[in-house]
Write a structure and sequence with these properties.
Blueprint: H1 13-40, H2 46-51, H3 53-74, H4 84-95, H5 101-126, H6 134-138, H7 145-162, H8 174-186
C-alpha cells in the first residue's frame, strides 16, 4: 500500500500569527483613515473634500471596504484562514493543555463579536444587499461605530500581546492623525 503524502500546507505558529497581525493592522489602519475622512475631517475640511470629491469618494469607499475585509479575516470560520479561531486552535494543539485562562477568555470574547462583524461585512462589502441601508444592517446587531473601533483596537492590542515583537503595530489614532495632517496640508 503506498504511503500517504504528508501535507506541505501545514502552517506554523509564526506564519499564522503574521497573517493575523497583518489583518489586525490592516483593519486598524484603514478604519482610522476612513473615520478621519467621514467624521473628523468632514466638517472642517468640507471645502477641500468637495474640491477633490472624486478622490475622497474613492478613498472613503476603498478604506471602508478594506477595514471590513481585514476585520473579517480575523473572524473567518474557514479552517484554512489566518484567523483568531485558527490561531487559537493551533496554540491549543501545540500546548497539549488548556490555554492560559486570560488568553482563552480573550479568544472567547472575540469569538462572540465575530458573528456581527461577519454579518456587517457580508451585507455591506462582500455580498452587498442594495435594499438595506446602514441602519438596516447595523440596527439588529446592536453594534455602533464606537464598538467597532474598540473591537479593532482591542484585537490589535491582543495580537501585540501574542507577538514577541509588536513594534510594527501602530499606536491608536496614529493614522487618523496622519490623515488630518494631510487635510491641513491641503489648505
Amino acid at each position: 500500500m503506498p504511503k500517504q503524502a504528508v501535507s506541505s500546507t501545514r502552517v506554523d505558529r509564526s506564519s499564522l500569527l503574521c497573517g493575523v497581525a497583518r489583518s489586525a493592522i490592516g483593519a486598524k489602519v484603514h478604519y482610522e483613515i476612513w473615520w478621519a475622512q467621514v467624521s473628523d475631517a468632514a466638517e472642517p475640511y468640507y471645502d477641500k473634500i468637495d474640491e477633490h470629491s472624486a478622490f475622497f469618494r474613492a478613498s472613503r469607499d476603498a478604506h471602508y471596504m478594506a477595514f471590513f475585509i481585514y476585520l473579517g479575516h480575523l473572524f473567518d470560520r474557514s479552517n484554512d484562514a489566518c484567523s483568531l479561531k485558527e490561531y487559537e486552535k493551533l496554540l491549543s494543539k501545540e500546548a497539549r493543555q488548556p490555554l492560559d485562562e486570560a488568553v482563552a477568555r480573550k479568544f472567547r470574547e472575540f469569538k462572540e463579536k465575530g458573528d456581527p462583524i461577519r454579518k456587517i461585512r457580508n451585507k455591506t462589502v462582500a455580498h452587498i444587499n442594495s435594499r438595506l441601508s446602514e441602519t438596516d444592517v447595523f440596527g439588529p446587531l446592536n453594534m455602533t461605530w464606537n464598538e467597532i473601533r474598540k473591537l479593532i483596537y482591542d484585537v490589535t492590542a491582543f495580537v501585540a500581546e501574542l507577538q514577541a515583537d509588536a513594534s510594527e503595530i501602530p499606536r491608536d489614532g496614529h493614522f487618523g492623525k496622519a490623515t488630518l495632517k494631510l487635510f491641513r496640508a491641503l489648505r
